[in-house]
């Protein structure tokens, strides 16, 4: 327990959530909180986040230590600076979007159907959302996974591992601590090596969060608004199209959660 430890909830959810987090993997709830917009409540909860990571030990020692250090930096950081960094990282451009399906489907109709399907999964499990976030928002998705059994967690992480690997590479390229979240999710299924295949591509990418890039997106969307075909809409994200094509051509591989006692001996 560190000086940052306080009695504070893991999330800003109501005092009586519809599920008991103890039934699932609490470290996934920690990862969800670390992707939240920084607030005083999040800073105050950093001590508890550290305690959960230390107690559950689902990740290797190196990753766990890095996550704990990040929690400490969050706790000690200037809140306004943390918030400005968050906005620059996630609210400008799409390359580091926390909306999972945006990386696969862009703004096409397929994304809407994918979200409908995901909502159906949530509803079937009794997991209800409020109106503030989309169902494919990664922190929301992690809240859901934290209530699932290991087989279901492994299935879902296997489905999105290509998105997680690309997101990790992009966040690492920008020097963001947030890269530790998708990297940790990959580590849970022994897929950290997936990141390497994206590093060269990411280094060649033109930043999409500069004023010039953002202006270009606005101009492009203004033109596409009057387009007469669904195909034009589907082409809005070249990266989303590439990942969608890959998803349809690569067969899903069964994955499982790495055992807590033997996961990643190299990191110990």
Textual characterization of the structure:
This protein has 268 residues and is an all-alpha fold. The protein has one domain. Helix content is 58%, strand content 0%. α1 runs antiparallel to α2, α2 packs antiparallel against α3 (61-76) and α9 packs across α11 (196-204). The longest helix is centred in the first third of the chain and has 17 residues, at 40-56. The chain is globular and about 40 Å long. Mean pLDDT is 75; it is low at 1-22, 212-218, 221-252 and 261-268.
Give a quick summary of the entry:
By secondary structure, the chain is mostly helical.
Which properties best describe this structure?
268 residues; disordered N terminus; disordered C terminus
- Uncertain residue ranges: 1-22, 212-218, 221-252, 261-268
Count of separate structural domains? 1
Order of helices and strands: HHHHHHHHHHHHHH
Q: What is the strand tally?
A: 0
Report the end-to-end length measured between terminal Cα atoms: 20 Å
Which structural class is indicated by helix and strand composition? mainly alpha
Please tell me the overall pLDDT: 75
Helical residue percent?
Answer: 55-70%
Please state the oligomeric state of the protein chains shown.
Answer: single chain
* Shape verdict: globular
Taking the sheet with the most strands, its summary is: none
Instruction: State which percent range the strand residues make up.
Output: under 5%
Number of helices: 14
Cα gyration radius (Å): 19 Å
């Amino acid at each position: 327990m560190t000086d940052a430890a306080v009695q504070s909830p893991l999330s800003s959810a109501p005092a009586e959530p519809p599920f008991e987090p103890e039934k699932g993997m609490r470290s996934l709830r920690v990862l969800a909180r670390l992707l939240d917009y920084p607030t005083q409540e999040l800073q105050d909860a950093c001590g508890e986040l550290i305690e959960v990571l230390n107690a559950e030990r689902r990740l290797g020692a190196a990753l766990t230590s890095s996550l704990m250090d990040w929690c400490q930096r969050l706790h000690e950081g200037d809140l306004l600076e943390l918030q400005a960094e968050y906005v620059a990282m996630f609210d400008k451009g799409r390359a580091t979007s926390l909306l999972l399906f945006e990386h696969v489907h862009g703004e096409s109709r397929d994304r809407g159907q994918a979200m409908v399907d995901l909502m159906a999964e949530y509803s079937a499990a009794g997991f209800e959302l409020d109106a503030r976030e989309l169902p494919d928002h990664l922190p929301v998705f992690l809240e859901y996974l934290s209530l699932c059994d290991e087989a279901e967690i492994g299935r879902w992480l296997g489905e999105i591992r290509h998105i997680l690997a690309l997101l990790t590479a992009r966040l690492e390229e920008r020097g963001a601590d947030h890269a530790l979240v998708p990297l940790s999710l990959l580590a849970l299924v022994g897929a950290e090596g997936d990141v390497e295949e994206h590093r060269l591509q990411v280094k060649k990418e033109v930043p999409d969060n500069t004023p010039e890039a953002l202006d270009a997106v606005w101009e492009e969307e203004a033109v596409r608004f009057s387009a007469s075909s669904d195909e034009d809409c589907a082409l809005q994200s070249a990266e989303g199209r590439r990942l969608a094509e890959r998803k349809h051509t690569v067969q899903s591989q069964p994955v499982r959660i790495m055992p807590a006692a033997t996961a990643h001996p190299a990191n110990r």
